[in-house]
Amino acid sequence: MKPSILFIGAGRMAEAIISGLHNKGQKQINQIFVGNRSNSDKLKELEDKYGIIPVNQLQDCIDQVDIIVLAMPPSEHEVVLENIHPFISNQFVVTIAAGMGPESLEKRLPYGTAVGWIMPNTAAEVGRSISLYTYGQFIKNEHKQQMEILVNVIGDSQHCTEEEIHKLTAITGSAPAFLYQFAEILISMTEDLGVERKIAQKLVTEMVIGSAEMLKTGKLPMELRDQVTTPGGATAAGLEVLKKGNFDQLLKEAVIATNKKAKG
Ligand SMILES: NC(=O)C1=CN([C@@H]2O[C@H](COP(=O)(O)OP(=O)(O)OC[C@H]3O[C@@H](n4cnc5c(N)ncnc54)[C@H](OP(=O)(O)O)[C@@H]3O)[C@@H](O)[C@H]2O)C=CC1
Ligand SMILES: O=C(O)[C@@H]1CCC=N1
């Protein structure tokens, strides 16, 4: 039987998965219910766009769903899980929140509840997330199939251990923000050179896409970097500035700080 899903949280990540299910998962799922904290306009918008069923009282629909996706901030999990605990019977409960692994879900749900954790990224919106996922200890085959539906409609995926996801949250979940910061600086510098915003954005975007395509050939980043860097040439002068400014160390510190904050 095709599963029905309840999303708790209706923000950008929930919408990306709902949109993926709407576009690519129609045949694999039954109904989608969505509840949030207070933004009823957003629920109406999702209803108009994807035909979801808006939910005011979560407890009223839990017994109609097979999967519950927790798509609200990590800080809200404690209270939401406490509220839904009495109504959980046999649902597969999946969180997408940073720092909230299966261990913390199992602690807050009835003993024996099947749980999972997905760490997507915002490229889910265009079906290009690389999503990490893992399971709790009470998982059955049907839950693995349900997990596959969720991750496949938003892009590529990688099965990991819970500990790996804690350590990789910065790399696949948050590092897109680091890349966008990098792009923003280059675009802004291009504009300062007198290039109009639209063109500047196009130049930097295509440079990033082209570089990503080169990485996809399987060549090592070091090799690709060396191909750009003519010895004693222009790029070498730029890389030297990054080296002097301790770019490597700074990036490592950013990754460590991200994971530390995510784990709480
Ligand atoms: N953004 C990202 O790049 C990534 C985010 N994540 C995780 O995804 C989760 C959601 O993030 P994102 O979509 O970006 O966040 P948004 O801020 O876009 O959305 C948050 C949603 O959670 C709802 N919400 C908040 N509190 C509650 C509550 N107590 N009960 C029900 N709903 C609630 C909000 O409802 P309302 O508007 O009514 O307040 C809103 O719909 C987070 O846990 C985050 O860690 C994971 C990977 C990547
Ligand atoms: O910033 C955050 O907390 C989330 C986790 C991964 C990406 N965004």
UniProtKB/TrEMBL annotation:
UniProt pathway: Amino-acid biosynthesis; L-proline biosynthesis; L-proline from L-glutamate 5-semialdehyde: step 1/1
GO biological process, one term: L-proline biosynthetic process
Annotated EC: 1.5.1.2
Regions annotated as coiled coil: none
Entry-linked PROSITE patterns: P5CR (PS00521)
Residue ranges occupied by any Pyrroline-5-carboxylate reductase catalytic N-terminal domain in the UniProt entry: 5-99
Amino acids binding NADP(+): I8, G9, A10, G11, R12, M13, A71, M72, P73, P74
Subcellular location: Cytoplasm
Family: Belongs to the pyrroline-5-carboxylate reductase family.
Function: Catalyzes the reduction of 1-pyrroline-5-carboxylate (PCA) to L-proline.
Record protein name field: Pyrroline-5-carboxylate reductase
Gene giving rise to this polypeptide: proC
